[in-house]
Amino acid sequence: MSHSIHIPNPPMNHTLKLMKCPLILLAPACGLLAQPQPEAATAEAPEPEALPKVIVYGEAESEGVSQEPFFPPALGPQIYSGKKATLLDLDALPQVIGNNYRQALTRAPGVLYSEETTPLVSLGYRGIGEPHRAQFLQMLQDGIPIHADPFGYPESYYTPPLDLVDRIEFLRGGAGLMYGPQPAGALNYRTYMPRLDRAFSLRTRHVFGSDALYATYSAVDGTVNGLGYLAAYQHRQSDGFRSANSDYVVDGGHFKVVWGALKPTRWTLAFDGYAEEHGEPGGLTLERGPGLVNYADDRTRASRLHDRFRLQRYAPSLTVTHDFNDRTTAEVRLWGGYYDRFSKRQRGGGFGRLPGGAEAESNAIERQEFYTLGTEARLRHDYLLGGADQNLTVGVHFYRDDSPRTDSRGASPSADSGALVSASQRYVHYGAVFAENRFQFGRWSLTPGFRLDTVAQDLTVRRPDGAGGATVSQKDRLEVEPLVSLALEYALPQRSELYASVAQAYRPTLFSESIIPASGTVIAGDVRPTTAWTYEVGYRGRPRDWLSWDTSLFLVDLDDKYGGTVNQAGQTVLRSVGRSINYGWDTTLELDLLGLARARQARPASPPEHQLWLHGNFSLLAAEIHGGALDGRRPQYAPELLVRAGVIYRWGERLKLGLLGTWVADHFATDDENPARFIPAYTTWDLTLEVLVYRDTVSVLAGVNNLFDEDYYARIRGDGIDPAYGRNFYAGLQLTF
Fold first, then answer.
1. Which candidate, 86, 47, 170, places its Cα nearest to that of 549?
2. For all residues of the chain together, what is the average pLDDT?
3. Which of the listed residues 24, 534, 600, 646 has the most CB atoms within 10 Å of its CB?
4. 227-238 and 85-89 as β-strands: parallel, antiparallel, unpaired?
């Protein structure tokens, strides 16, 4: 299949408007960098002498330890050479409160945070599919998948509390093949490890804020006679900012035991327990009429008063890492889990419309359970070839899921149980083998990779009929997908490098895209896995401790893109919408202005007591659907410009002050450019503070989110517009012992 590709002219009207603020913000840095440097700083450095390579890796022992923005060529059993991968260090920011992803992703160009009223998280990337529950990304915690089912139902209702997260590893496109096939890449949350420098440590944090927010996090950890332990508990609750039914309660516990942290064999036993419940206040509309809830009249008003969502998740895991010698490392993971997703939603409503009529006297009750078991083994071996180190990594991955689902009809708008509408049983068996080899030739390195995925799904649905019997439908599906990748890197002086990669990916067919559609959804008959090729070429570096950058050009070619359009009945119709070509430019820059000033004055740069970090990143994106009924349309959630920028002042560990901004251009929430699904451009700023007020024990936390009270929305679903949170405040105290 071939299509001509049209490259549209950039929309200068809102692009220039959105670029104005970050350009002003970056102007001081550009001026400083443009000035002549002292002779010692500008003299060309001599060619470095080749020395034996030594890579030291490990987890941060405690909170507050900053880390490098980029990965080394190989780390543990993974190879990163030539791939687009970034380490998002949360310790570099003032403490993130309330799982605010605008702040957590401030250094991640191209990631679209689709904000919503509920505490759940939706993330998209480069216009690759709908961001709802990050379903086009691989979502992992410490390398273990956290989607309800990564293949049949890849919706991440659970994400780890950011209080517990040391860093987020963001692996784009083909870099994500080390974890799975999803075309948008992978987000891997790395949780804190027990500290090694003392036997006991306690920290507890209590924060209060707008709309009756109360957020608390407490943890104890330490290491005794080689045994490390960490136990943490997080609780968050709020009434929400909507007029009704936007309350939520979140509870999460994490327990971890590490044996032999500094020994050749390391054992890590972990357990996560998580429960949350929230109201779903429903969407709004820009139209006016009987029963419609208008956004302009009152953006806080609710259109659903009885809709509720509940989630429980329990997940144990065991990880064993063994260093056979200084050249061979193996890692084996075993995990299981139980996921329970429950929702009840009043019938008879519509897009921004209050439920009415006879249907409004009942509700739709959905319960999905997921019993999972998985294991993965990886081995990396370094060997000499041509006088240089080469790296080989191989692995296998097996996973199974038993997932029953029931749909019932309640006899009242708030019923928790009702008459059975359908009962389904879903099974997934997944197996993968993968291998990569990094060949190094002087400054050049070449990393070919291969992954073979096999996904088997078995679905059975039983629906009662009028005679008291049941209709049965069954469907078996087997998908075998070979995937290849190739990454190239050229090492330059001054800790910088050129990189390029090309990689295949695909999105397996979901349960909801076969015979069990979601409520209000129609499934077309042309369901096929979405396949993708991602191409990327870039330049990154960190020549000084006070400067780093990463800039790249990319192209994502999605074939059989699966997406939604809205029919005249207001139903979402899922079908193959053709081929989507998404291409653009990502750039991120971080500069410590005080570090630059010290360098210009030839003053010692380490250890710096005061830092003033200026950071900015943008993603320019052109995306278009080719072929099919939507030829020439722009894919959903694909803004032409996404910019994040900010200033962070750090005074050692005494003070962190951050002003962080986000700009997002116009885009649509469906693939058909439906005017009712249009999301206007918006800009938000967050101001956050973390200050140590007494020794190393007492800290004060405070912040204002959406500082200038921007009136905007970032998400539109079938029930209407989901307004984003206006200006809100918080303040709290942290004690550390």
1. 86
2. 88
3. 534
4. unpaired
The single residue listed with the structure tokens 């670029």 is 19
Interhelix angle 12-34/593-600, nearest 10 degrees: 30
Peptide bond into 316 cis (omega under 30): no
* Separation between Cα atoms, residue 331 and residue 267, nearest integer Å: 10
Place of tokens 């800009």: 683
Which DSSP state fits 243?
A: S
> How far is CA 366 from its chain centroid?
26
Find residue 201's DSSP bridge partners. 221
Report how far residue 261's alpha carbon sits from residue 274's, in angstroms, rounded to the nearest whole number: 27
Dihedral angle sign, alpha carbons of residues 350, 354, 356, 359: positive
3-state SS assignment for residue 349: coil
∠ CA 59-165-265, nearest 5°, is 30
Q: What's the confidence (pLDDT) of residue 313?
A: 98
pLDDT at 606: 58
- Residues whose CB falls within 8 Å of the CB of residue 454, separated by 6 or more in sequence, listed in order: 430, 431, 432, 478, 479, 480, 481
For residue 4, pLDDT over 50 is answered with no
Residue carrying structure tokens 């005080």: 594
- Helical H segments across 64-111, by residue range: 101-104
The pLDDT of residue 322 is 96
pTM (two decimals): 0.89
Q: CB of 648 within 8 A of CB of 615? A: yes
